Amino acid sequence: MTSSFAYQLALPGRKIVFPRDHFSHPDFKTEWWYYTGHVTTDAGKSYGYQVTFFRFGLKDKQDDPPPLFTDLYMAHFALSDKQAKKFRVAERANRGYGDKAGAAVDRFLVWNEDWRLEGRGDSQLIEVKDKDVTLKLRLTPAKPPVLHGDRGLSQKAEGAGRASYYYSFTRLATEGEIEIAGHRETLRGQTWMDHEFGSNQLAEEQLGWDWFSLQLDDNSELMLYVMRRKDGSIDAYSSGTLVAADGSSRRLALSDFKIEALGKWKSPASGAVYPMGWRVVVPSANLDLEIAPFFPDQELDTKKSTKVTYWEGSVSLRGTAGGRPVRGLGYVEMTGYAGKLKV
Q: Residue 120 and residue 283: Cα distance in Å, rounded?
């Protein structure tokens, strides 16, 4: 007997409510909790980091009666050593069976073996380990969460349900410790957190996306994404959000911003050719930024988990905002350059 289960679609009318929507949403097929940040140790060593927990639902592909597990849980950890220009990647993949991996529906808790994300009071705690590296972080919001798109509904393509529910903590004060090869150091910095859940985001003609999360030193933030189509054009549903220093935000349509690639980089591992270096302009905000990676080789090949090859890298930025000089830090994610993304 085949499954009669159908996942919910991300549609207008659902209200994002906290803390409930930090928790897992197993009635939606795809979900991720995404952290990117920049930290500096007390000794002056500087790193970029990415920690992502994924949940992928299987109930629509499983036969009745209910199986032993209904979700796959995957996780990525990447660390960018900015001074040494070295990039390391680790990944996890487990079935949601027993205590191996899971995501709670009644509290803010996601885990994959000994990798863990937990909400505790107003803070979020992360702990990941890979071989001789351990990263432990406490993240405290400097601003309230920001709802992207139409009150949290982020449309990615034409059609009902081609969307996700999407919010971010755009500036999380970060403290903790990193241990590498037995040497432990305390660190501080700032983090960006995304949480998305939905069931059917991409359309057939869409290849992937370029996504930017930028934290400016005037205490504002900018999120942009462009959805790339197979014919090389940019989908009209590309969008963004500009967050002011006081935490207020406004939505940006594709016509409100411009992204220009300033160079290219060919991955020696995958052969994919990525844009590398960008100019971002938001005329209505009098914002003009030049973005540069700390180093080009920040590509992840996740063949043991999500089976996606993508670029996710730490970047710096400089330019002008409101006619005044501005600098900052951020992350750029690029998917679909080493093959079509399926989400």
A: 40
Lowest mean pLDDT among 9-23, 53-67, 245-259, 274-288: 53-67
The tokens of 167 are what?
A: 């919010």
pLDDT digits (tens, 9 = 90+) for 202-229: 888 899 999 999 999 999 999 999 999 9
**Model pTM score:** 0.95
CATH architecture entry for 20-334: Beta Barrel (2.40)
Dihedral sign for Cα 183, 184, 189, 190, please.
positive
Distance CA 206, CA 227 (A): 7
Contact 166, 149 (CB under 8 A): yes
**Cα-to-chain-centroid distance, residue 338:** 18
Q: Phi/psi class of residue 15: alpha, beta or left (left: φ > 0; alpha: ψ in -120 to 50)?
A: beta
Residues 223-249 have a mean pLDDT of: 96
Q: What is the domain partition of the chain in residue ranges?
A: 20-334
**Checking DSSP bridges between strand 183-198 and strand 309-321, what pairing results, if any?**
unpaired
Q: What is the arithmetic mean of pLDDT over 240-266?
A: 98
Residue 5's pLDDT is 84
CA 109 to chain centre: 18
Residues 313 and 330: their CA atoms lie apart, in Å, by: 8
For residues 139 and 127, the answer to whether their CB atoms sit within 8 Å is no
Q: What gap in Å lies between CA 255 and CA 4, rounded to an integer?
A: 42
To which residue do tokens 């305390």 refer? Answer: 186
Enter the tokens of residue 57.
């639902």
C-alpha 126/C-alpha 187 separation (Å) is 14
How far is Cα 47 from Cα 191, in angstroms, rounded to an integer? Answer: 12
